[in-house]
Model the fold of this input.
Amino acid sequence: MDTRNTTTAETEPKRPAVPASRVRGPKTTTMMQYVQLFRRPGEYMMDCRRKYGKQFELKVFPGYKLYVLSDPDDVKQMFLAPSDVLHTGTGSASLEKFFGQTGLAWLDEKEHLARRKQIMPSVRGSAHQRTEESVRQMAKESVARWPRNKAVALRPYVHKFTIEVIREVVFGKHVPSCWDELFKVIWDMLKLNSSVATMIETHEMSPFGVKLLRAIRPLGLDRFFKQRDRCDELLAQAIAERVESGEPGDDMLAVMLGMTTDNGSPLSAVELRDEIMTMFVAGTETTAAAICWSLEHLTREPAVFKRLLAEIDETGSDEYLTATVYEALRRCPPNPHIIPREVIKPIEIGGVRYEPGSMVWASAYLVHHDPKVYPDPYAFRPERFLGSKPSTSAWIPFGGGRVRCLGDRIAIVEMKEVLRELLTTCDLHRPDMRPEIPVGRSVTMTPKRGARLELRPRTHRARRVTEADG
Ligand code: HEM
Done:
């Protein structure tokens, strides 16, 4: 693979790059393309790649020319581009209403790099170890509370679990006294993700325009903004409580309270709020979808299920479990297409020259279903990942480069612990064997029926190999 990043500042490419205007794409209207992408995100992209090649144009991002990338070499070039050449803040704009304009997901260049470096310790090292131990315990307690002996959509239960995990990441052992209400408010705000209103960039609209939209009650925006005001109050209360307690910690809030900006001042109340909300938005829908997709595939693949169960019951290893989780994230990446990058300075990717005013958008779905990269790509085969680590440019559920997901390790732990606990304690009965189809919750795709399963208590408890057995 060619790992060079060929910006204009670097050496001449061997063959002159073609201008992006030569990249083809569907001629249908923006609305038609948007609807197709929303209704059949994977298949529509696949149809376009078949017709127009590995890079193609779509008209779904207002105000920009958008180009889809589907080749791992091109994706790698995109990941390696300097921070002043490609920006990601614009690509997350529809989520601004949740996490504002001062958090990681909005920032670019030096500000982004500095903030990310400062926050990193709260998701790595000893902080990660603490989170991992808590997640294990939380998975046990959560799964024990999920209904037994009746078919239910597991998604809401799983989603609640992932919100509790982010509480642990952000607040650690210092659970705010207002947590119960804060949880309910965040849960309510996240409901907007299943409304079309979630994709509207309200911050770009006039106050009057927003007022009009709020008046259309079924859109859910009015309720969302009211809940957001309450959420801000509760977060301010939670932060003040923590400052007053003076208790140290390695959780994200403690780390952020110790951070300073370029001019030496601490993070403002707005910056703290935006960063906390970034975690609740980025880290909950996604992980819940990933767990649900894992269940979808596991319960349709008896051979995989049997092998995983045998590993969990009879060995102390988690090799096959890890491979299963990687395969679920390959087969159904919760964000089928990662954050679009805005071109700030001209850049050449895969022989095409992109100019400012355009965006490049890497499709995880297309990369993950390329038969040259993954033979028989629609088959669910964890064996692909046994004994080998996923590639950073051909396995991209967590994106990559400077904005690679900050919670990737936590998400993997969550997935593994929930699956392990479910398989250890329950027989999973699937009432409907028809495959699930994806449905959008904002930028995340989740199974439409919500991983509907009946959990039946296992008649024999799992027998684990312990040191004493050896
Ligand atoms: C399976 C679960 C998850 C998936 C599939 C996922 C996916 C992603 C993707 C695709 C990106 C954008 C990367 C890019 O475009 O290159 C991202 C960014 C991010 N994710 Fe995740 N994520 C998951 C879980 C989490 C969790 C649990 C957390 C928090 C603990 C989290 C926090 C973040 C943050 C803060 C960013 C922005 C990073 C930055 O701008 O520097 N994510 N995630």
About this structure: The longest strand covers residues 452-457. Residues 369 and 378 are 7 Å apart (CA to CA).
